[in-house]
Amino acid sequence: MSTFSFLLDLVADVWAVVQYVLVGRYLWAALVLILLGQSSVLLQLFSWLWLTADPTELHHLQPSRRFLALLHVLQLGYLYRCLHGMHKGLSMCYQEVPSECDLAYADFLSLDISMLRLFESFLEATPQLTLVLAIVLQTGQAEYYQWTQLNLDGFGISSSFLGISWSLLDYHRSLRTCLPSKPRLGRSSSVIYFLWNLLLLGPRICAIALFSSVFPYCVALHFLSLWLVLLFWVWLQGTKFMPDSNGEWLYRVTVALILYFSWFNVSGGRTRGRAIIHLLFILIDSVLLVTTSWVIYGSWLPNGHSLPMWVTIGSACFFLGLVLRTVYYLWLHPSCSWEPDLVDGTLRLLPSKRPPKLIYNRRATRLAEDFFAKAKARAVLTQEVQLNGVL
């Protein structure tokens, strides 16, 4: 699915650029190319830095480093990862009993692909979706070539919203597989997690698109100012994700861009306070964007729709998403399951049984430990309990 979605996005982007050029919209074509280019370059950089940081014996079946470097220079590194992971998964389908090492390696590959897909969603898909909405609001019409997925009115924008929310869900589900003490996300939890991300992300993108349509030359200044604030906030949290300092700043730059649209945890400790601060920050900024656009532009959009009506719908979506997010973390968020066990007459708390991985993804495991800090603390406590033999 990642491979198909990547190729479909690429074809749709090239098609949109060609159509923009044919109708004389050179600025729009240039913006799409810029978004596509910077997203691809950053993805290849992340992919290459991760490959060089991995132990050499881990990827012993892959081509030589020179060939992999050439693929990344040609902007094919992410596509190669998708194809390599798909080939590894299909090869295990022909094995009667896949080895634990093969399963662990396939899981290792899928974690990196999931994280790269999340980066691609916010580096390219989300800004381009904002651009398309801004064009529609500015021109008052939707041309058939403006949709990013298929040439059907409305379907491209809807599928982009769904795809971005799905990448957040896929990333969250992948993180939970890194920690043996964290159970996997169930169906109901996954549905609620997907919905609250969709409902909170939608109004944010629409607010930025509305402001962009009214002040097309001011949105860059708005993004840069907020991005610098968010980058400073990420730096204060002392992230340690990449293998070197230069790569770490690349990661912080990317995370700050994600935080401009959605919540993304980057450090350990209790996340509730940071999540609330970020939510209030984004909410206040979105309200200011919509209010400024309303005062300057008026209450009627070029397509004849009432702006207050869309503001009401967006507000309802935001608060519904907030309710679903609260419901998820209060009742549906899977917690570490602890079972009482009597050993030598002493009560001990043991984590749920899940065999340790033969190969673990250090990058994803680090993020998982930071995201699920409570589970990490309990795991450390459990180790101490087992060593001491007494609770």
From TrEMBL:
It comes from the Eukaryota. It catalyses: a 1,2-diacyl-sn-glycero-3-phospho-L-serine(in) = a 1,2-diacyl-sn-glycero-3-phospho-L-serine(out). InterPro entries: XK-rel, XK-related_scramblase. It holds the Pfam family XK-related. It is a multi-pass membrane protein. The chain crosses the membrane at residues 26-51, 218-237, 249-268, 275-297, 309-331. Its main location: membrane. It is found in: Cell membrane; Membrane. Keywords: Apoptosis, Cell membrane, Membrane, Transmembrane, Transmembrane helix. Coiled coil: none annotated. Belongs to the XK family. This is XK-related protein.
